[in-house]
Amino acid sequence: MLVLRVFLVGLMLCTGTVGWSQDFATIYFGDPDIEEKVDDYRKDKGVVGMGLVVVHDGEIVYLRGYGKEDREANVYVDPKATRFRWASISKTLTGVLAVMADNDGIVDLDRNVPYYYPSYMVPNKYYVGGNLNNGQSVPWYRRLITMRQLLSHTSGIQHYSNGLNRPEPPASSAANPSLNTGMEWALKYWKYNPLIDLPGNRWSYSTPAYNLAGVVLEQKMGGSFDQLTQMLIAQPAGMTTLRPDTLWNPAPRRAVGYLLDGGDATRDNRDDDVSWKLAGGGFISTVEDMGRYAAALLGDEILSPAEKFDMWSPQSLRNGDLTNWALGWRIRQGTAKDLDFKVEHGGAQTKARCHLSLYPNRGLAVAVMTNSSTNCDTRGLARDIEEIVIERLDTGDAPIKKGYDRLDMIAEPLFPSIGLFRSVTTTYRALAR
């Protein structure tokens, strides 16, 4: 089935039905309502560089870059070129691949992980209720962790600071390609640690659980996680800039990170390789490509309607209680039948804060990506923009106002510097209010 899926993706790319030949709608810059929200947000949060994309009915209808990807070098954000980290939004890619593997009969999401990856054994110790001073033995009949539990954060596997020790390799090792050979290499830093609770007992967010899920998918689907993502997600979606964020081979136009220090943004000179946790938070791309990803998910380019239903269904605890997490996604509001059913994921990492929201029944998505390492509420901005667009759709209007498209058409060819062009349009917008 996997071979057939890859073949069909290749066939569609060759015939132009998806991927590179996909034409998006006219993109109007300067929607006054959206720009007012963004202006207020940037003034309030002090974000140095940001990308924004809005998707509706399978098309990117709004695409903007704001501020600078590198303030010191005076490089402005280009939404088609500047690459921001996905951070934990990468987990949604893992959910997509896992649903594919389950549907194709490659991995049963309800089978014990060691069945597929014998190198991992469910620990025989756990901390009762997460209390590190209250260790107990895991009963033999509870030594079972499924892929579904890994993907819904109910496995009992620790996150960063709530376990016996931090589950990450030394920065120097992670930055060394001769040592850092991928996610499987990094499992040794935590896989023997006790669980923080019995599998299925409670919800507890875990990036290491996603790394383990990614390794299982690599083992059973027959390729590296990057290769699988490129073949089965990026190519059919028409994404050209998605890649692992390796420190030793940085992506072109990789955004510089900034911190807010006493109200002023300062360059964040920390840098870290995140490719060792690719399935949990290791990708980078332009905001345009995140929009292409959202458009493909809202359509049928990547997953069938049945697969999306499975991916976006709430998952349960062992006692039957439903959580508000699906497979790789958080369910923010509603159920699958509701018009305003919403799934989302955010990301927080060195050099990045970002957010992606999808309304599957509206065909709507909003993504915000920044180069801030400080809490800057990207979800709040995305929510404000969603409300603007939804209000228009509910009254029968177009999702985006044309705004200053005439000025754009005149000014853009005249100013090769996107920064100079933006200064003109920003001034015009301020005067026009």
UniProtKB/TrEMBL annotation:
<dbReference type="GO" id="GO:0009002">
    <property type="term" value="F:serine-type D-Ala-D-Ala carboxypeptidase activity"/>
</dbReference>
<protein>
    <submittedName>
        <fullName>D-alanyl-D-alanine carboxypeptidase</fullName>
        <ecNumber>3.4.16.4</ecNumber>
    </submittedName>
</protein>
<feature type="domain" description="Beta-lactamase-related">
    <location>
        <begin position="35"/>
        <end position="375"/>
    </location>
</feature>
<keyword id="KW-0645">Protease</keyword>
<dbReference type="InterPro" id="IPR001466">
    <property type="entry name" value="Beta-lactam-related"/>
</dbReference>
<dbReference type="InterPro" id="IPR050491">
    <property type="entry name" value="AmpC-like"/>
</dbReference>
<dbReference type="Pfam" id="PF00144">
    <property type="entry name" value="Beta-lactamase"/>
</dbReference>
<dbReference type="InterPro" id="IPR012338">
    <property type="entry name" value="Beta-lactam/transpept-like"/>
</dbReference>
<keyword id="KW-0378">Hydrolase</keyword>
<keyword id="KW-0121">Carboxypeptidase</keyword>
